[in-house]
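ok so I'm stuck.
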Amino acid sequence: MKWKLTRRFLGSVVTIVVIVGIVNTILLLSLLIYRAMHNFEAKEVSAENFSRTFSQYVELIDNKPIVNEEGLEKLRNNNAWIQFLNDEGEQVAAFYTPQKLQTVYSPVEIVQMYKYKEIDAETTVFVGEAHNFSYFVGVKEQKIGRYVITYDYEKVFKNFNILLVIFLIVDIIIALVIGFLFGKKLTSPLNILIEGIQQLRERRFKKMSIPKGVYEDVFHNMNELSVKLDQYEKERDQLDQMREEWISNISHDMKTPLASIHGYTELMKDNATALTPQELYEFTSIINRQSFYMKDLLDDLNLTMRLRNQRLPLQFEDVDIVGFIREMTIELLNDSQFGDQQVEFVANVDKATHKVDKKLLKRAIFNLIYNALVHNEENVVVKIQIDDIGPQSELHTQITIADNGRGIPSKDLEQVFERYYRGTNTASTHGTGLGMAIARDIILAHKGKIDLTSIENKGTTITILL
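replied:
not stuck anymore, here's the structure
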């Protein structure tokens, strides 16, 4: 894009320079042609040269100038005559001269003879010198003449300045015309782009027609930006709605333990002396349990925010993923809550060592298994499998957590890993809706990948690549 604009700009500049040069050349040629058409200097110079160089045809015989045959032939061809004078202005020889031509001249008459047409209106007289003799050459030709030019330097410079101004004005007009045409072609798409940007600012995402030329890529990018912003706007609205629902759920989850804590503390305060030790123990246990729940809720909120903003330092250490997840599975089955659940562990690789944060990775994988167990029927089967996908990439260990449960509706798949999402078909509403988001952020913090596929009423499969 940048080079296209540069080429277009340089092309316009070169075009202006070429056109200005052509116009200036035409003007100069026109002036020269005009001068040639209205100036007889060429012919005059030709007759002048003929006269001044005529001495080559003159010979000196008995101290008297004589024109040889070639010179006489030249005189006849040019319809000219010649008259030789000595130092006193007296004629010493003449060839083809008119009958009435005077034979003695004073210095003033010599000047007059050269300067003006003293013989007749058709004859122009030129002066030369040969063998210490001066001579007049008269050329009888109506088209030939002599003009005496006087120069006024002030007027000459004035005319030169006028000519320079004319050239300058013509060049400026050419530059303005080409600049206007180029500027119009350049700015018209810019006006459309500015209007398009104004529409984007007003959140009106419309596609613009794409003109051919240097701005074609810009319009393509603007249309793609408009589509992206429209998509982001819809996603933002959806996230805002999910956030409101999430806040409502969090508020409800916070109110429930707070209500329990408040109720039991009021009961204990009003009936402190009447309560038995067993009742006091039961009430304080409930308060303690609800307090821990609220603490866990706040910790989850803090964890997901720090993970999302990459503000949580990870404590990496070399861990055998196979043994690590095997121990997690055994620990899970030893839990009374999940002791009767069907959890299978399959390892198709003996050992897979990675640098991980054990605490966080355990949290992530446990969240995924927990969702598969809690949000399905009691007879759900959860299969945990570890495979080696080879050294073809940096990610060479695959962890799969699959279940045959109720699955996730297709309309909910894109939001499963969002912080503000709680599945629409989950049987239990207990929890914050942060488990999947935390799991995803932990896997990404380990430079891994996580993917989820699900078919409703057939099950869900989560794939982790490390």
